[in-house]
Design a protein that fits this description.
Chain lengths: 130, 244
């Protein structure tokens, strides 16, 4: 666990060093960003699911690209790398070939979403107390 | 004086961060945020800004498509989460390249670099990319020409060209199928394309007279494009087009 200033400590699965630089101790703004992430991710993820169902690989790559950017703003730098690899494969593989990696991506996305839900609640409580 | 800018970005969180950074810096004034290229272009047709924060991958059209359509050259900072666009960024003379997500520190570095460039500009204009040096950007033959565009030499039949448009240090060649941008000036093109089918009708436009559909007032219509006739070119246009 690392600290943002000396007060709020992000979950260890997030890149807290980067989040510290990004928010510069502004936990109120971090709360806003985490809330926006939870609001936006399902919308963008729907595009991923639609593209995969339709086997539209260029659209799938673009949709994953957008989610990748979103994951970065809440400190999931490792998940960004996974998205990047998947995005690259969209231009050379078929939907069938990507099935296993797609399932892995869904699992990682759901885990990430769950962590951010908890982090958002913690940030909200933290900010209410300050 | 603050640098005026617009943000062209389809991810709201990313745009919000940028806006926040601009406000915090007190160096940049955000005139608008657009989620896609079409809306941004509509704004840029009405109003000029000093700087574009431009995402590359957006629904409908890319940031590079927007750059292809601009009729003037504001400063450009690309904001993208891919590093693969670095070469294209270089070709388009982009001023900086911010990989998302980026911190306020990195944002400020880009703005300060931009300010330094602006201060230095009157003394020395930025050098063109080596691959796009003016003397080699266009090679002409009798009924065709080669232009250097997107890192390759593209062969264009002169008959296929609808018109040429000046974009400050670049010229856009518009054909029915595609547009190409090359590093050159319209004056240079005028000299290379001298002949019966090309006519300069405006300081920013040379048209292929065989492609003109009609002329209404001071506007030439050709294949859905509208080209203005400049005041100083009216007489020559009338003479060359046998306007009775």
């Amino acid at each position: 666990m690392q600290k943002i200033r000396t007060t709020f400590v992000f979950d260890e699965s997030l890149n807290s060093t980067f989040l510290g630089e990004l928010f510069e101790g502004d936990t109120i703004y971090a709360e806003t960003v985490f809330e926006d992430f939870l609001k936006d991710l399902p919308i963008y993820w729907q595009r991923v699911e639609t593209a995969y169902t339709n086997k539209n690989l260029p659209a799938l790559g673009t949709a994953v690209h957008t989610c990748k950017t979103l994951f970065g703003y809440v400190g999931f730098t490792d998940l960004q790398e996974l998205c990047q690899q998947f995005e690259n494969k969209c231009s050379v593989n078929t939907a069938e070939e990507l099935r296993v990696e797609y399932i892995l991506l869904i699992q990682r996305k759901e885990r990430a979403q769950h962590i951010i839900e908890k982090e958002y609640d913690r940030l909200r409580l933290f900010n209410e107390g300050t | 004086m603050k640098i005026s800018c617009i943000i062209v970005e389809d991810i709201q969180i990313a745009a919000d961060f940028l806006r926040k950074f601009c406000e915090k810096s007190d160096l940049v004034e955000v005139k608008g945020h657009f989620l896609n290229v079409a809306d941004a272009l509509e704004f840029l047709d009405r109003e000029r800004v000093d700087l574009l924060f431009l995402d590359v991958e957006m629904p409908g059209a890319t940031g590079f498509d927007l750059l292809d359509s601009l009729t003037y050259s504001p400063k450009i900072i690309l904001t993208t989460s891919k590093t693969e666009y670095a070469f294209d960024a270089f070709q388009y003379h982009v001023n900086d390249y911010l990989k998302k997500p980026f911190t306020y520190k990195r944002f400020l570095e880009a703005i300060e670099k931009l300010q330094q460039t602006q201060n230095a500009e009157p003394a020395a204009a930025p050098a063109p990319a080596p691959a796009l040096q003016q003397p080699t950007s266009v090679v002409t033959g009798t009924d065709f020409l080669f232009i250097k565009s997107e890192d390759k030499l593209v062969k264009l039949k002169k008959d296929d060209i609808l018109f040429l448009e000046s974009m400050r240090d670049y010229v856009k060649f518009v054909t029915p199928a595609k547009s190409y941008i090359t590093y050159s000036t319209l004056k240079n093109m005028e000299e290379k394309l001298i002949g019966p089918i090309f006519l300069k009708v405006h300081r920013s436009y040379i048209v292929n007279i065989n492609k003109i559909d009609d002329i209404r007032g001071n506007t030439i219509y050709l294949l859905g494009n509208q080209i203005p006739i400049g005041k100083g070119h009216k007489d020559e246009v009338a003479a060359r087009l046998n306007i009775l």
